[in-house]
Amino acid sequence: EPAIRRMAGLGRVSCAAERDAYDEVNAAVDVAVIGGGCSGLSSAIAAAQAGAQVILICSAPELGGALGWANPGVIETLVTKLHELGVRVLTRTTAFGLYDDNFVCAREFVQPRGVPAEGPRERLWKIRARLVILATGAFERPVVFPNNDRPGVMLPGAADKYALAYGVACGRRAVIVANGDYAYAIARSLAARGVEIEAIVDRRAESQIDARARSGVPALRVLSDSIIRFVHGARQIENCTVGPADLSRKPIVRMDCDLILSAGGFSPAVHLHSQAGGKLEWLDQSSMFVPLNSSAGMASVGACAGVFDREAAMEHAPAMAGAIVRGEPLPNTPARGIGSSLANTHVGKLRAKQYVDLQNDVTAKDIGMAVRENYRSVEHVKRYTTTGMGTDQGKTSNVNALLIMGEHLGRLPAEVGTTKFRPPFTSISMGVIAGRRNGALFRPLKRLSAQAWHARHGARCEEYGGWWRPAAYPRAGESIEAAAQREARTTRDCVGLFDGSPLGKIEVYGPDAGRFLDLMYVGTLSSLAVGRCRYGVLLSENGVVTDDGVVARLGQNSFWVTTSSAGAERTAAAFDEWLQCEYPHMKVLVTSVTSSWDNVTIAGPQAWRVLAEAGAARELAPTSLAHMAIVDAVIDGVPARILRASFSGELGYEINVPAGSAAALFDRLAAIVSAIGGAPYGIEALQIMRVEKGYIHIGTDTDGTTLPGDLGLARGIENKQANFVGRRSLLRPSSRDPNRLQLVGLIPCDRKTLLPIGAQIAKRPPPAAGEGHITSSVHSVALGYPVSLAMLAGGANRRGEFVRAFHLGAPFTATVVDSRFFDAAGARLHG
To answer: Which pLDDT score is estimated for 287?
Structure first.
């Protein structure tokens, strides 16, 4: 493979950061016209005259298509009319996808590559159109003949454009190999500009060639029913051998030429029509697929509809546009106007390679081999041979491939069918898809309303669950780790202030709210008394723990659900999904109110003292407001919803106040906290305290296989009467395996070494089979030595065992203990 890669000449992707900027624009219009040729221009003008707001999308730098360089006078008239009518024109813009409800995606080249760019390099247009008119034109199709990959073999339209638009002759003496009338028009055009036409090698019999096509070039040499049998010359064409298509017949002629034009007919650009669900039909006379029908609000005009006669197209396109805007029946598509053309056949007995896909080097022989290998679907043949899988997505090769496939299978082209047309129609950069969503905008961080307050008090912030939150409040010369140790010790000994605003908050209301929460959570919540709270665990359908939090009952039909910071959106989405899909009969309203409330948490032995000095009523004292209770109150004149709960293991008050009120409350409470020796604490200190208590953190101590029983949270499940999400999955034999990974505590044997997070627990060093892994590890300020949480196979029955853990080749030993390292009875929670 490396040798093949080197020969293929593939380059290396740069590792440097993308310097170019990209943009994205949304637009809504009445009519989107895709294509800037004469049919597209005529359609846009007619739609605008009918009173529609129109946008015209053209992939070329200038409008007009082939007429722009073949007959610019006609185009200038149309363009002038276009601008007078106020049609919005996008040039250098390619519509690469047409999605449901006429949603068009297009890529605009704002500035060319290689030029220093101020502003966006490319722009993604997302256009929502009431009506879409497709005027995307057609692709020239080459002829399949031996050695057709030689330099100097070209499509005739390219040579004609070089001659007309730029005054460049692609060769002095040309041979045109053809199977349709189009070749004769090209011969006339090039001959008029000084290119010598040696001959037209027409695959059709003399009787199939339209005499009108040959008019205008009486001296033209035409070899009918003939093919090119061989092309001579490696680096450039020197001559070619021509003979009858019947290999047993003669004469065989060698023709001097330096240019071969391969005129195999046309393939209308039906990609957008097909992406929108439109069907195709095969025209035998012209050997091409054309649109058969269109989805609502869409029409095809011009060459992409098979209308190649210019006059007919200029009449049909505006008639079609006017009718679709006014809601009238669409007119019939006129005669196609391309003349007769043979299906592009090849001669299988010739030994030289006949290329079908010039980009992926797929030959006619490869197509035949795929059929012999018993591939019967055009989709399978495409993938087996890689035909049409290059960056051009088979624009010139796919029709030839299916024609050859049909010859081998004895099927008509319509029976073979086409491969699926999928967006994007052309290759587009990843940058234009990303648009402005990079750097800080790739995943915008959510910020606390009291962010400025934290900054003034020295907070060092990091990302946690999509929020920019204080990790710690380090003092001069203090590291984050040292600051977290100090803050945790201060909270344990005195009191700390914490910003818990990112905690998810969901209001669940309605007569069926309690019964609905019973279905969502492992525990029974409908039996909660008003003003009381209960810890809840949320599962997926597979029984896997996805989130946890505290559920409080505010009233008979009203519940307040808190979630983890990272789980707020997915929990609300899960509630909505189950209500809409499985329980639509339930009378329940779910509203996410996370952004409506700030949360200021006071934790520590002196938490009540702080509240009392702030003027709180005696009803909030620990002797009155029990742990896991909720009450509405007023703190310093601010209405608040106060929850007695704790993730630190200390006496705690979670004070929820209206959004934007946290900074003022922090100012008021911080003065009191500081006066009695307390301090604010960040996420890192909270992590230390929660690990000391053995509290789990979803996503850190759990993964996509963790069940509630693995965490010791399965108590009461057997006795719960109501069903709940994931219950059936908990009955599987694998869910009841006693050797599942289960949560345990670990204490290092030397009581000094901090066990690395992620270290693998095993009896022998890797690659021996593992028994689990360490999920959380901290140096406990309460105990004075490191402690860790781990998931260990059969851990519930292995307390007291010694285990070994390995990390980057280094071994560690530890003792398995209860995960509740500190205050297992929970006395400190109650103050």
So the answer is: 87
